Amino acid sequence: MRAAWYDEQGPAADVLRVGERPDPVPGPGEVRVRLTFSGVNPGDTKKREGWLGSAMPHPEVVPHSDGAGIVDQVGAGADPDLVGVRVAVHGAQSYRPSGTAAEYTVVPEALVTPLPDAVPDDVAALLGIPGITAHRAVFGDGPVTGRIVLVHGVRGAVSGIAAQLARWGGATVIGTVRRSSDLGAARLPRLDHVVALDDDPAATIRRIAPDGVDRVVEVALDANADLDAAVIADDGVIATYFAHAERVTLPFPPLLFANVTVRFLGSDDFPQQAKRSAMDDLVAAVAEGALRLEVGEVLPLERIAQAHEDVDAGRVGRVVLQVARPADR
């Protein structure tokens, strides 16, 4: 099969290779997916570069956890009815050496989600890491029907999905953008309210939610901790999946007296059932039109290094590699 891989960490152009690798064979409980698209996420590029001192987890890594395609083989004990079914793949390179940057990937059956006709392959390849993280941020502490949810950085991949999922779940959603000039920008999801962080955001949010917000989906805990403490409701939850620094200072007294929970989100280690439920909901939300995702760039497998560089630079939105055309299935 044609595949991309790296056997050492470093800059994308220096370590990523594309060539032939043996076709994988599914083992017990596994399925093989002939891939059409491979999603490229910041988590994939961080693994490749050795972010925060992480080491090579395996001697050779075929990157990317997310993708879409069609099941063409199943191992012993896996559901034979999956053969010929279009699926989204998540977690392919989570604690495993071989991800979706290849013509084929083999994963446990639980890591594939059947796709209805209303969900195209390229969009399905965008769902895994950002979608599951967003779903956990919104629903990890229960339903949000009738709640007020503050979602920071709604132009981003995870936050953009989280904001749409929260609305789908029946919440009033307040989104934030960095600057007032971003309020009219493209790639803003349809929300109840959008607030700029450069224009007294605490006062604006409190006017919308006088009793505070029930949930915060946080893209930069170290940057926004004071604002979050100023607007969180009693017994509220701050769900965070990123901070710029390795150590974060929090405003302890206001969070303490409001009995706030801070939930840290590392998607590789979510409970398997949480991932399964998230993927089912994500596919359903896309099929219903409640979750809209735009593909920012499509590149062939041979240009994987450029794809990684574009993701790291944040130039083009969501990026996928086209491994094979859907018509070739």
Search tags:
28% helix, 7-stranded mixed beta sheet, 10 helices, 329 residues, globular, alpha/beta
How are helices and strands ordered from N to C? EHEEHEEEEHHEHEEHEHEHEHEHE
Number of distinct helices: 10
Using the CA coordinates, give the radius of gyration.
20 Å
The structural class is alpha/beta
**Straight-line distance between termini:** 15 Å
Helical residue percent band: 25-40%
Characterization of this structure:
This protein has 329 residues and is α/β, with parallel strands linked by helices. The two termini are 15 Å apart. The strands form three sheets. Strands 3, 4, 5, 6, 7, 14 and 15 form a seven-stranded mixed sheet that branches. It has a six-stranded parallel sheet with strand order 10-9-8-11-12-13, sandwiched between helices. A two-stranded antiparallel ribbon has the order 1-2. The chain is globular and about 60 Å long. The model has no long low-confidence stretch (mean pLDDT 95). The chain contains ten helices and 15 strands. α5 links the parallel β8 (148-151) and β9 (172-177).
